[in-house]
Amino acid sequence: TKAHIIFSGIQPTGVPHLGNYLGALQQWARLQNEASPSTQLLYSIVDLHAITINQDADQLRRWKRETLATLLAVGLDPERSTIFYQSAVPEHTELMWILSCTASVGHLSRMTQWKSKLALSDEVSALDSTSAKARLKLGLFSYPVLQAADILLYGATHVPVGEDQAQHLEFARQCADQFNTVHGEILVKPQTVLSSAKRVMSLKEPRLKMSKSHQDLRSRIQINDGAEIIGDKIRLALTDSITGVSYDPEHRPGVSNLLAIMSYFDEEGRTAEELAQACKSLSMRQFKATATKAISESLASTRDKYNRIMNHDETHYLDDIATEGSNKARRQADKTMAAVRQVIGL
Ligand code: ADP
Ligand code: NA
User: Fold this and answer.
1) What Gene3D superfamilies does the record point to (predicted)?
2) What pTM, to 2 d.p., does this model score?
3) Which of 77, 95, 314, 333 is the most exposed place for a label (fewest CB within 10 A)?
């Protein structure tokens, strides 16, 4: 059997939050810790994806370091996992261009994610309107091709992502097929999506997923938030005025989100329903205090490690890890690109 190559990415668009942690980063660390020695793991901080929306340069640099510190704080080990900034490996953009020359515009225009980003900026029926098309940035439209390049560059066999990314993975498989049809079997299609079932919702709009792209910082709990900040955010979280605590995601999305988060962390492995049962006679204020304590304690060791890394960085610790990671990633990318350039005639 072929060795496993695992690739995944996170955008440096803010300090990672509970959704990133429970839906992705925790799984990345587990995959690393359970991997056989022949398994390769590549985890990228995808800064080129972050600039599909306008970024302040100093803030982007800060978010990149904070994201790198988070990956280390959750237990990724640079000796075992290749951790790197996407832009430090220029082959990502080279392969993206090459894939663009065989990829189908029709498939790309069926991707829902850019449509929803347009919807956020009030461009609902975007594709139908000429003026909306004029404002639509090419990079926001074509970034699934970059994402396909990220994966195919390393011959990734396994890609751990949330279910929101399933469509993009299917697109990456199509990109490989379309390239291989023209040029021969060079690119490896990722076989398996390792999807985490854990989904964390926004504290402010609990029918939307918690995301770094939401303006309001109170909508998410960052992995470096202390107990007091977590308490403030949970106190302000949108719940409801129904008496008692019960798990009912349809009718009580706010309360159910807190119960789900508690169950993901629960050391006794209790389900959200079981936790609801245990909390059922609490007032909302008491329940929120219980949730705050549970979540804050569960994040404590990650938060402490994050703070140690960020506070003791005079020695270029993070820069050295990023450089070493990108050198390793580049050596591997070179192998794919040599074969790709050869069959094309470049
Ligand atoms: P964000 O939407 O916060 O900017 P990213 O696009 O950087 O997140 O995604 C990084 C990883 O975190 C992806 O694997 C994604 O599926 C996962 N993820 C993001 N938000 C959530 C969430 N609210 N619940 C579960 N997983 C999430
Ligand atoms: Na996102």
Assistant:
1) HUPs, Tyrosyl-Transfer RNA Synthetase
2) 0.93
3) 314
